[in-house]
Amino acid sequence: MGGTLLLLLVVITNPSFISVFPVGLINVIVFALLMRRLAPLGASPAVYFAAYLSVIGLAGFAFTNVLVGSGGTGGVDVALEDDLLVAGSIMFFSGSTVVLIFAAISRGRQKGSEPGGAEGLLDLGDLGRFSAPILIIGLVEFAILIGFLGPAEFLSRPDRLVGRDSSFEAVFQMVALGAVVALAIVVFSRRGGVKFFAVVLLAGYVAYFISLGTRRLALVPLLILIGYILARRGKIPVIGAVATGLLALISLSLPLYFRGLPMHGLLPHLEGLGTFVWDLQVFATSANNVLAGFKISTLTAFTQPTIPLDALWISINPVTGNTAGWYEIARTLRLNQFTPYSAIGELGNYGPPVFAAVFAGIGLLLGVAQRLNDLLFREQLWKLVGVAALGLTFVFVIQFAQYNLRSNMRYLYLMLLIQIAAVVIIRLRDWSRQRHEVRG
């Protein structure tokens, strides 16, 4: 009901949305019909992904042109014609609908116990007992990140973008997000020297994100909130969640500001904070950056030259970039030197058949991911793996409208790899127990 009212509100304020309304209404109906099949919704990667696409499809149509001139869009801060707004919105709603349908198909009907509400889903027991390995792994991970970046470049450098551009570096950058959550768990569950060391190491990760000037800095408050919730066994502080959302919005404006500084790295970025002022213009820039994915995707899909179909296999191939031939085509899949094509925009550029087929495949994989999590969430220890998988889903989701398809698919593959490995271990353990029981 709420989704339908939002669609009607946009039609009233912008009559051209009437062309999108039927597709949006179908999306709302599919959501309503499949909610039970994909329950619990808090453990459904497909629901997160589809909801994100729907929200961007709606908000992008309503506010993209309103925010033109606010900056923060990587060189694509232009108004879209009505026909492009309509085409882009239909593309997002269509992707959302296809994902939901095929996720529901692959997930099927589940038997056995399901996690309860959010508190039951996130109650992983006393995770503080893992403080020692968390601190050791966190320290090693941080050392590796600085090794990739280079100690001198970490502190100061002339260029914003640095690194070895390798698949291994990309994996460790993904792991860094999980490390922040894990360290936050230690901070909120332990005292004394252990807590102090976790705070220092957590500050190191924040410094790393500041040095890079990456928008992942905006995720840090949310990651710390997740760590707090896990440390408190699933209890979600409402006021804290609202404050974290506001802090994340402020944090998003910082990387956009850092990009305009003459020097980069931790020291220049910290020094530049002295002239940073957070006002309504900064808020508009942050909002424009969030919705830039709609514009990037629409321009990629409907204004750029047709992408050769060969590039699709390279983009979804799970092997390394060098082996797949990614670096031979990466520079061609960009709107400009600052802005890569988006994943959904690339798929839209290939045309409806490819778009539908790939989104159906993604839906099938996300449905399988939820089935795997159904198994993992049945045991306290393995819940942690399931929650980590959902964390990778969030990164996959929020980057799908702003980064290349290949950059996003690796999060999906890593999530499935972690889940499958965990389920295999569980099956082997159960098989071993059964053998011992038979012999006994």
TrEMBL record:
Keyword DNA-binding in annotation: no
TM spans (from-to): 6-34, 46-64, 84-106, 127-150, 170-188, 193-210, 216-231, 238-258, 350-369, 381-405, 411-429
UniProt entry tagged with the keyword Glycoprotein: no
Keyword annotations: Membrane, Transmembrane, Transmembrane helix
Protein name per the record: Oligosaccharide repeat unit polymerase
Source organism of the structure: Herbiconiux oxytropis
